[in-house]
Amino acid sequence: METEELKITNMEFGTTAGTPPTNDYITVYVQNTGTTDVTIMTTVTVTGSGVTGGTTTSATVDKGEDGSFTVDLGSEEWSEGIAYNVVLLSTKGNKFAYTATA
């Protein structure tokens, strides 16, 4: 039986240059430690002060491989010093969560 197992190893909080700059994306780094490829859906749950969700490009992380996803927060922004929880959802319905402080 094949098992989806995606370990989120890190999150980086990004800022888009502009006037003013906006804290509008998070890069999520993952490692597929399961026995099958994992495809992530485009909608991402993000919770923390001022943020209610985000989107990413659907992509597959092959078994045994590392990958990353950039989560676009749209018009919402993350704030420094606040903890944010990100939940990636696979096309098979499995959830992979991680919390980090901006």
Describe this protein's structure.
The protein has 102 residues and is mainly beta. The protein has a single domain, classed as Immunoglobulin-like (Sandwich). 0% of the residues lie in helices and 55% in strands. It has a four-stranded antiparallel β-sheet with strand order 5-4-8-9, with no helix packed on it. A hairpin with a 5-residue loop joins strand 8 and strand 9. It is elongated, with a radius of gyration of 14 Å. The model has no long low-confidence stretch (mean pLDDT 94).
Task: Label this structure with key terms.
Immunoglobulin-like; 102 residues; single chain; 9 strands; mainly beta; elongated; 3-stranded antiparallel β-sheet
Brief summary of the model shown:
This protein is mainly beta and 102 residues long.
Outline the fold blueprint.
Elements: E1 6-16, E2 22-32, E3 38-40, E4 43-47, E5 54-55, E6 59-61, E7 66-72, E8 83-89, E9 95-101
Antiparallel strand pairs: 1-2, 2-7, 3-6, 4-5, 4-8, 8-9
Number of strands: 9
CATH class call = Mainly Beta
Q: What percentage of the residues does DSSP assign to strands (E)?
A: over 45%
The total tally of domains equals 1
How widely separated are the two ends? 38 Å
Mean pLDDT: 94
Structural class: mainly beta
What composes the largest sheet?
4 strands, antiparallel
Shape: elongated
Strand adjacency order, main sheet? 5-4-8-9
The low-pLDDT segments are none
- CA gyration radius, whole angstroms: 14 Å
SSE ordering: EEEEEEEEE
- Under CATH, the homologous superfamily reads Immunoglobulins
